[in-house]
Specification:
The structure holds 3 protein chains of 3 kinds. Helix content of chain A is 29%, strand content 19%. Chain A is of the alpha/beta class. In chain A, the strands form 2 sheets. A 6-stranded mixed beta sheet of chain A has the order 1-8-7-4-3-2. Chain A has a 3-stranded antiparallel beta sheet with strand order 6-5-9. In chain A, α2 crosses α3. The longest helix of chain A has 17 residues. By secondary structure, chain B is of the alpha/beta class. Helices cover 27% and strands 17% of the residues of chain B. The longest helix of chain B has 16 residues. By secondary structure, chain C is an alpha+beta fold. Chain C has a 4-stranded antiparallel beta sheet with strand order 1-2-3-4. The chains are: A alpha/beta, B alpha/beta, C alpha+beta. At the B-C interface, α3, β11 and α7 of B face α1, α5, α12 and α13 of C.
Chain lengths: 189, 295, 363
């Protein structure tokens, strides 16, 4: 238990975080592409990709919502030790982690304000599989069209309809990550 | 204190995380200026502190960095910034556009088409395109939130009625993805069409504490009117050294009799062409007139 | 020679070497030590600490030496160093009421508990160059010392507060926002404005304050009290469960008492402006109090008369000399590209305008 909390952080924090951020940046800049992201290992059920995103992006200034699918004492202790991020309700969260069903409803999260659309939550969605197929994506970062096996389509269409407000998403599975910013238009594949 | 006393890429990890979060939000809302808590850097505000902070947050040890100022790799400030990252991030550096994975630039977009594997980081002095029409940040923020860009169009149209054309030659405003009006930094308007491309573009304004982004393949439209379409014009000359007809040129005064020549502002582009055998009308004369450009 | 195109790297290296040589000056004249600067140019050191936002007289002295006496450059060196320092925590609020004062004057009461303490001030010196100082080696006379009442000197504004004649400031328990860790956004609050003023350029804050005195947002100030002295700095140590003293700092504090005949929301009463700086920076502290008061128009229900000092956006965006001088000086960097695009534009517009004139003349 104790070791699970203390272990699993980035071995070389500055350099590992730099690689992890570039993977995340690439994923969000090019929706539909799937990137390798690893370095951190958190207690189950958190994937390596989600754990690495958390240690790369979260700190004491970013309230984090842990959805019921991931709300274990072991994971909370790990996050506290590795990042110092305070735990918060969905409405106050800058980041959220969980499975798609556990993170619902999306209406609970901050989508930014017209003056400050950046003050919106980023959701880390843990996926059973992650593949560049399924829903059709168009918009910034996408040359023609891209595909991603999103958990559903309607929610992302509703999210896009609020643009420039809205939520931004990372999808994680094992050591892989894909991104979906609020700017992406989604249709059924 | 030795250089090792500083963290990889100079900034501490908490600062990098803060900048990285701002970059991600910038990517998610193309053209929107994300406020960030810019740090005091060991170089003056106005000299690329925003670009340097964005580059520092993006660089990995595997990157190859190119730094240009006015299109050139060897202008003094480009040299200074490149040395800073060589020292603090131990990254490889290059002058070749094609070899770079991260390019930090001031005032130019390279002539060579950028690829999906590259990030272009712009140094931005005044990120707010509406600032010269409305000095108050409170007001311009309101205008962006209401998508109220009439003032900008009025200004551009007044130019047309007075001068017959839009009298903005650089930092020519663009509209990103049909939403935000954005300042492309003081690049010549000749470069504006290059903003729609394969590379990710990040913009950093240190003193003004703003970061913004244009993801790859994002719609970037230079503001214009149906009867006065945008014209990315440049000096109507070929490069005197490499003969290029399609590159942006610097005008160089060669003597006190009003003699002048036009040469590529992108030194890597010009040098590569000359190495490939292209010549301009003064190719042979460069040593006498412009010894400094030769090597 | 300024090498603009090629050879930039060598030019930079050579410039730095030359700069070091110039910094040293004539080697027949003995080198300044940072100790000499700290002790004998103490007010310069204080200004660098105040505007650099870092209390360290030795480092400030080093910065002044390295900057060849260019104060803004010295402030910049300190700021750039400061941002790299790890943060261990925040001190407990300092208690200026418990300050060991070298100087304490009030312009509102002839005498008051604790008395007027003139201290080591330039105020009544005749500004005559003292040629005796040019001859080195003279030992200064020893200043006579008086035994003062031990104990804290009460703040002058407390006396007015007893009569309810001065606006009471709400006691806040929230940790104020940190200007150096969050991007500026408007409207601000008073703690943030005071931070910006405290590290703002002395010349800028002085001019803003002066403009209010000349009628651009006049706020009728009296120096209720100006005090300079040493306070202890304490920090809560969570492991210990109590605060311990971690050091001492010399500070300057100024509270102005401003006439206020009342507004729609506030009854007639005196109001306050507040200034606090590291070191002995009394011109700055007084200026700060006036500008602070000017920016409080909204909370006091006063009219915004459009004075520059009332405009928090104007003041806060332009008070910082490291930002201002960096941006000002960047226009000496190459701008060939923008200039070239302007050249082409002006040539084209001019050709067209000349052609139009000829056309008109012909008609």
């Amino acid at each position: 238990m104790q070791n699970a909390v203390l272990d699993g952080g980035l071995a070389d924090p500055a350099r590992d975080a730099a690689f992890a951020f570039r993977a995340a940046l690439d994923a969000l800049s090019r929706p539909g592409t799937i990137r390798q992201i690893e370095g951190a290992t958190a207690p189950a059920p958190c994937s390596a990709a989600a754990a690495t995103l958390i240690v790369t992006l979260c700190d004491p200034t970013t309230p984090l919502y842990v959805a019921p699918s991931h709300d274990t004492e072991a994971l909370r202790d790990w996050i506290t030790f590795q990042t110092g991020a305070p735990f918060a309700a969905a409405k106050d969260a800058v980041f959220a982690i969980g499975t798609w069903d556990a993170l619902a409803p999306l209406g609970a999260y901050a989508v930014g304000t017209p003056a400050y659309p950046d003050r919106a939550a980023t959701l880390i969605v843990e996926m059973p599989t992650l593949d560049a197929e399924g829903a059709v994506l168009t918009g910034p970062g996408i040359k023609d069209t891209a595909h991603l096996n999103l958990p559903e389509v309607a929610a992302f269409q509703a999210n896009r309809a609020q643009f420039p407000l809205g939520l931004d998403f990372f999808f994680t599975c094992g050591a892989r990550v894909a991104g979906l910013p609020r700017s992406t238009r989604v249709t059924e594949g | 204190m030795t250089d090792q006393a500083y963290n990889f890429a100079y900034l501490d990890e908490q600062t990098k995380r803060m900048i990285r979060r701002a970059i991600l939000k910038g990517v998610a809302v193309p053209g929107y200026q994300v406020p960030f808590a810019s740090r005091e850097m060991p170089m003056p505000y106005g000299w690329g502190t925003g670009g340097v902070q964005v580059s520092a947050a993006c660089l990995t040890p595997d990157d190859t960095l190119k730094v240009i100022d006015q299109g050139a790799d060897d202008t003094t400030n480009a040299v200074s910034i490149r040395k800073f990252f060589e020292k603090t991030a131990q990254v490889a550096v290059t002058e070749k556009t094609g070899e770079a994975t991260v390019i930090q630039t001031r005032h130019r977009i390279p002539e060579e088409t950028l690829t999906e594997d590259q990030i272009l980081v712009y140094q931005v002095p005044i990120p707010e395109p509406l600032r010269f029409l409305e000095p108050s940040e409170v007001e311009t923020r309101k205008m962006h939130s209401l998508e109220e860009y009439g003032l900008m169009y009025v200004k551009l149209y007044e130019d047309i009625s007075r001068h017959g054309e839009i009298a903005t030659a650089y930092a020519y405003p663009v509209r990103v993805e049909d939403r935000y009006v954005m300042d492309p930094s003081p690049i010549p308007k000749f470069d504006n069409p290059k903003m729609e491309g394969a590379a990710l573009q990040l913009f950093g304004a240190g003193r003004e504490q703003r970061i913004y982004a244009v993801p790859p393949y994002t719609k970037v439209v230079s503001l214009d009117f149906e009867d006065h379409p945008f014209d990315p014009s440049k000096a109507p000359h070929p490069c005197a050294l490499c003969g290029a007809e399609d590159s942006y040129l610097d005008e160089v005064i060669t003597d006190d009799q009003g003699g002048r020549m036009f040469v590529c502002s992108d030194t890597d582009f010009c040098g590569s062409r000359r190495a490939a055998g292209f010549t301009g009308e003064m190719s042979g004369a460069q040593d006498t007139h412009l010894g400094a450009v030769g090597e | 020679m300024y090498v603009a195109v090629k050879g930039g790297e060598r030019a930079i290296d050579n410039a730095h070497t030359w700069l070091a040589e110039e910094r040293r000056g004539d080697v027949d004249i003995s080198e300044l030590s940072t100790g000499q600067i700290r002790e004998q140019l103490a007010l310069a050191v204080d200004r660098v600490m105040a505007e650099g936002s870092l209390y360290d007289p030795d480092l400030a002295a080093l910065a002044i030496k390295q900057a060849r006496g260019d104060m803004i450059e010295a402030v910049f060196l300190i700021r750039a160093y400061r941002t790299t320092l790890p943060r261990f925590g925040a001190s407990a609020p300092i208690d200026t009421g418990a300050m060991a004062c070298d100087r304490r004057i009030s312009a509102t009461y002839k005498d008051l508990p604790g008395g007027q303490v003139l201290g080591p001030t330039f105020d009544y010196t005749h500004r005559l160059l003292d040629f005796a100082l040019a001859a080195e080696g003279l030992e200064p006379q020893e200043a006579p010392e008086a035994v003062t009442d031990a104990g804290d000197l009460p703040h002058v504004t407390d006396f007015l507060a007893q009569e309810d004649l001065i606006q009471r400031e709400p006691e806040g328990t929230d940790t104020p926002r940190d200007l150096t860790r969050e991007p500026l956004d408007f409207p601000t609050d008073r703690p943030l404005r005071l931070q910006a003023l405290s590290r703002g350029d002395e010349g800028f804050v002085l001019s803003m304050a002066y403009s209010t005195q000349r009628g651009y947002g006049r706020n009728h100030p009296f120096v209720g009290e100006l005090r300079i002295g040493t306070v202890t700095v304490e920090m809560d140590i969570p492991e210990l469960g109590f605060a311990i003293e971690i050091g001492e700092a010399v500070l300057t504090e100024c509270e102005t008492v401003n006439q206020f005949t009342g507004s729609k929301t506030e009854p007639p009463q005196f109001t306050r402006g507040y200034g606090l700086t590291f070191g002995r920076c009394e011109r700055k502290a007084i200026s700060m109090a006036l500008v602070d008061r000017a920016m409080r128009w909204a909370e006091l229900g006063e009219d915004n008369v459009g004075a520059p000092a009332q405009d928090e956006e104007f003041v806060l965006y332009h008070a910082d000399n490291v930002q201002a001088s960096g941006f000002l000086e960047h226009i000496k960097l190459p701008h060939y590209v923008d200039f070239q695009s302007e050249l082409e534009l002006i040539r084209r517009l001019r050709t067209e305008a000349m052609a139009a004139q000829h056309q008109e003349a012909a008609e």
